[in-house]
Amino acid sequence: MSENKKRQKVLVTGSAGFIGFHLSRILIKEGYQVVGLDNLNDYYDPQLKKDRLLELGIPAEELSDYNILIGSDKFENFGFIKLNLEDRINLPVLFSQEKFYKVVNLAAQAGVRYSLENPAAYIDSNIVGFANILECCRQHGVKHLIYASSSSVYGKNKKVPFSTEDNVDHPISLYAATKKSNELMAHTYSHLYGFPTTGLRFFTVYGPWGRPDMAMFLFTDAIINGRPIKVFNNGDQERDFTYIDDIVAGVVKIVNKKNSHGYSLYNIGNSEPVNLLKFIEEIEKKLGKSAQKEMYPMQPGDVERTWADVKSLKRNFEYKPDTTISKGVEEFVNWYKTYYLE
């Protein structure tokens, strides 16, 4: 553990979430002082979020209180606070007290389809919350903000692979619109205040401890429990499935960069699209059980294909995703069985 990292405090918002949990765990091991933040909402089972935090040494019985920084039972360099990004009172207090060196903002209301049902949640967390993060970073001397955008911003773009140079002015879901808004807001802060921001457009992240609303989880859970799976667009879809360890390795490289300047935007994905039916077939192989498929048309807000152009991330940060679909699916299935069946 380097002395520099021991003195550098990093805030990870959404630290009870899928990517935030994995990132926090690696940053802790890297030697940073890490503070995790999450509001533990019930978009999906909060128990899964609490169990992730338990892996980081945060006892569930202490998670009922808001605005209290809890120390980890396992890691001396990790603490957690339950807090909403929309909280204009307590969020600035946290920044003032902790004096963060860098911030990784992963907290957001996730999900394309849910944005059709509850648009207010996306405005509150993804727009108001992100504006609060930007302002706190500016006011309290944070050296670099790294934040989650999404491949959803590409909408129905036909040109592949998707490049950050492509026009993304026509989002087809409110979720995508909020993520595009985040990029614009970050650009404005970088331009006006010389504040370094880096946006990352994540492409279909999967792996152990994954979200229950994502395809990997939904398919595995249904097949194991003998339920049919819903296959949209009759399976004629491709996704740039990216294993969680590859994603986190890329984010850590950006956090580790000593000097950052201005506004940056990158795709972060595997850059190898996989057909949805092939993905399901891989799950079937690992489970030793066939899926009952129910075919459905394309859903509102959904797209036929995602494919990340990651050349700039590879060039600037030596990003090297190398987990095969076979290996990644195996790791998820093994975790699912351990967590739910043992």
Automatic annotation (TrEMBL):
<dbReference type="InterPro" id="IPR036291">
    <property type="entry name" value="NAD(P)-bd_dom_sf"/>
</dbReference>
<keyword id="KW-0520">NAD</keyword>
<protein>
    <submittedName>
        <fullName>NAD-dependent epimerase</fullName>
    </submittedName>
</protein>
<dbReference type="Pfam" id="PF01370">
    <property type="entry name" value="Epimerase"/>
</dbReference>
<feature type="domain" description="NAD-dependent epimerase/dehydratase">
    <location>
        <begin position="10"/>
        <end position="269"/>
    </location>
</feature>
<dbReference type="InterPro" id="IPR001509">
    <property type="entry name" value="Epimerase_deHydtase"/>
</dbReference>
